[in-house]
Design goal:
The protein contains 8 helices and 7 strands, in the order H-H-E-H-E-H-E-H-E-H-E-H-E-H-E. With 309 residues, it is of the alpha/beta class. The chain has a single domain, classed as Phosphoglycerate mutase-like (Rossmann fold). The chain has a 7-stranded mixed sheet. It is globular and about 50 Å long. The protein starts with 9 loop residues before the first helix and ends with a strand.
Length: 309
């Protein structure tokens, strides 16, 4: 039987009731997200019969991490000098069929579970190095571009070895994240019709730091005209505040809202999420994962189980 981490701490559980209500509000506010079960909502007229149709019927109230799959989830993992890009992203199975084995395992768990339990593999990518503290919505440095290119090269190697391509691509609205996603997937998935989805909830901790103030919707849409925005995504950044910094508990709640919406509406199993160190840390805490330091241009995969109740 798969060993899993315990549910999130009681401090995070106190946020669940509010998160469930807020998620319901978001689902109603963003009516277009109710169509997420249809692959065509994300792929430009690209018929992909391998996209799973299974999705959750209700919003989950807790998450656990399935251990024994990725080394980063193990208690004795040491991130010092660890190169995730040269180690199958941390997959513990080193057999030639390692990725096929993982795909079959996830599919089997989803098929055998009840309709209110779902399993997903999330590839949490951190953006490359950016020009921080120089103004609103920092862009990537030349090093940051090279870091994103290295992730692109690593994905090509793993896909050649059988790694499943992410079925959905999500990004923070901040330019350093969107640019990292674009470089990572431009000649792997974007050229095949995949449409990334920009989510406000994935941005870095909000407030005070000018590099975390996002661009306008118009400016982002001009750079990425084919990318998808929620109906509630405002023209101007209404969340950033020059004198108040979002607290860890608030960031965790924001991340929980994203996860609840993801598991309630998304049928995809393998998902790529490009964001920030703070966003990744918040997600790991919400699902009960051990702390993992992800460097710029790095990533951490997480095998998540989400039961209702």
């Amino acid at each position: 039987m798969d060993e899993a981490y315990a549910s999130p701490s009681l401090r995070w559980k106190k946020l669940v009731a509010l998160a469930l209500l807020a998620t319901a509000f978001l689902l109603l506010a963003n009516g277009d997200c109710l169509s997420l079960h249809r692959p065509t909502a994300f792929l430009r007229s690209l018929n992909r019969p391998d996209v799973p149709s299974r999705g959750k019927a209700l919003t989950p109230s807790n998450y656990t991490v399935v251990r024994g799959v990725f080394v980063q989830s193990e208690p004795d993992f040491n991130a010092t000098d660890y190169d995730v890009l040269s180690d199958s992203f941390g997959l513990m199975d080193k057999s030639p069929n390692r990725w096929l084995n993982l795909s079959r395992r996830v599919a089997s768990l989803n098929e055998q579970s009840d309709r209110h339990t779902s399993y997903k593999v999330l590839f949490l990518a951190r953006h490359g190095e950016g020009y921080h503290n120089v103004g609103p919505d920092a862009s990537l440095t030349p090093l940051g571009v090279r870091q994103a290119e290295a992730v692109n090269a690593a994905w090509k190697v793993e896909r050649a070895d059988g790694a499943p391509s992410p079925e959905r691509l999500y990004s923070s609205p901040l330019r350093r994240s969107a640019s990292t996603l674009n470089i990572t997937w431009q000649d792997i998935l974007l050229d095949k019709g995949y449409v990334p989805h920009i989510k406000e909830q994935l941005r870095e901790s909000i407030g005070i730091h000018t590099c975390d103030e996002r661009s306008t919707r118009t400016a982002l849409a001009a750079i990425y005209p084919d990318w998808r925005f929620d109906a509630s995504f405002t023209e101007h950044d209404q969340l950033w505040n020059p004198v108040f910094r979002e607290q860890p508990e608030q960031h965790a709640l924001r991340t929980l809202l994203f996860l609840n919406e993801l598991f309630a509406t998304e049928s995809a199993t393998f998902i790529s999420i490009t964001s920030h160190s703070g966003s990744i840390n918040a997600l790991l805490r919400v699902v009960g994962h051990r702390d993992v330091s992800v460097p710029p241009g790095g990533l951490v995969p997480v095998f998540v189980s989400a039961p209702d109740g």
